[in-house]
Structure prediction request, 679 residues.
Amino acid sequence: MKVLLIEDDDETAEFIERGLREQGDMIDRAATGRDGMFLAGDGDYDVLIVDRLLPGMDGLNVVRLLREAEVTTPVLFLSALSGLDDRISGLDAGGDDYLVKPFAFAELRARLRALVRRPPMAATSNLLQVADLTLDRLARRVERAGQRIELQPREFRLLEYLMEHQGEVVTRTMLLEHVWEYHFEPKTSVVETHMSRLRTKIDKPFEAELIKTVRGSGYVLTAPD
Amino acid sequence: MFSRRPTKIFASASFRLTMAYAAVFVVVTLTVIFAGGAAAMAIFRAELKDEVAEELRALAAEAAQGRETLLNALAARAAKTGETGLSYQLAGPSGEALFGDLGLSRFESDWFEFVPVGEDDEEEWLGRAERLPDGSWLAVVSDLEQVHDTWELMVAGTGWTLAISLPLALLCGAMMSAMVLRRIEAIDATAARIRDGGLHERAPLRGSGDEFDRLTANINAMLDSIEALTRNIRDVSSGIAHDLRTPLTRVSNRLESLQERRPAGAELESEIEAVKSEISTLLVTFDALLRIGEIEAGTRRAGFRTLDFSALSGELAETYEVMAAESGKRLSSQIAPGVQLQGDRALLVQMIANVLENAIVHTASGTEISLSLSPATDGARLVIADTGPGIPEAERQRVFTRFYRGDRSRRTNGNGLGMNIVRSIAGLHGIKVTLADNAPGLRVEFLVPRESLR
Prediction:
């Protein structure tokens, strides 16, 4: 994965660069909006990480101008601004995801992977499939190994999200935002509890485990090797 | 300090008010006098015209008896000019003077004004001529002296009137503006005291309920809310300081001990996990505070959409039925379909989730929790009740204050901001939240007013 990071804070930039290089990713850095725009328009990147508050040109404008220039590279906004409004204005400007500082590296990595490998089929296809597990969005029907599985609406949505991102790590925060529409930290272990019930229904009765916990990061749904 | 020095007299509102009052007074006085005068003058003139016309008719009658009779009559009347103010001229058909000489040369049967020879040219006389049957012209003229005298008298009177009334007007103006400005100065003085640090100061009310009382009452109400906000900010800052000091101290202690002991393997891992978890608690608290700030700024109202409150409540009930069951409690829900309202989805989800989570986290196993949404006469009512320990009546209001934590919840996780967020979100949506006794347990009622429904 080739990443362009537009971030003026050296410490944050080094933290991200070190992490991504360890994963074997390529990364370029720009410290100002102007340099970032120049590189983004020129280079062939898989994803851009853009800080909201940049010297000279603000991150929102950078992305707005890139979108106007028809640069369609996915953008992840990085920002210390955590208000719901800030999130919305980031997405309106043409960003694809929004991550609030401070963040865990695992969260950033998971979100970047989700942006880069967003399967084009997932958005349009009504039938999702991983190994012998199928989910029919229209009929709201889930089957594994030809056997019908009854899920509660929330469990269905959770499985749907995992299957849309099959093979990618999804974090707890991503699940809270997309499955529950929570933009706050709940006091109860909502994600863990629902995940455990979902596993009881789709994994336990069967031989191979499809949902795996990735320690310190989140979950991944993937076909067994 | 620059507030209480006396203002320059010409710059003062008092001076300008007084002058304006006096000017209006003078203009009104003059208008009344001159309008009245002009009317009086018109009446005088009309009367004089009648007199002249009457005289002409009488003399025409004399003329019918022959020229001698007319000349005699004219002579008799001309002798009384001093009393009547009337003068006469009789001219032959070709204009030759037969009696009197007013200097008239051209005759017409109509009214005319002229300045007679040797008279002050500002004083016009008024007359009328008539042609007699023998072709001669008879003119009768009034010297208008009465009219001119009245006018002069009036002008003189006006001078006197102004001489007396102008000081009176100035006095009245001064008194009026003093009355008005005394009220304003009282408010000004209060403002100055407040600026010097006395935020508890209030402007005095007179109790008359007039505009100034209303202004004062509004200013006082504004000061009340500013004072409450300031106190709130002070409470919150010290709340934050206290609440954050404990976990920060723990983080600092753990790091210090790590530095000394330099443990390896699993212990190091678990120590680092512990520090990370302390820090994430801190971040959650910060997020909650920022969220409250954002909500209370009211800017989110711009993003209100019509949304299905029934569906939203149903989804949350579904999630928390699972969560309740997990900890040995039971959540049941009764939701009337089709309740739509104007609002912010993300915030309303947080509002209901916070209350449901409290009911799950702060109660013992076996507790019954219920969520119901029903239409009411004045809107819609969402009730979340539990059979847990409840909150003593005396403490119920304090639940909504920032960083409040009941004695029972001290042992559990939480930052004391949950119910504060609930109330802020409700307030933003015009929803009224009340806490009541569920006998036993706590009953949280949200009343969505009719105006917020869609």
Q: What stands out?
A: The first helix of chain B runs from residue 13 to 63.
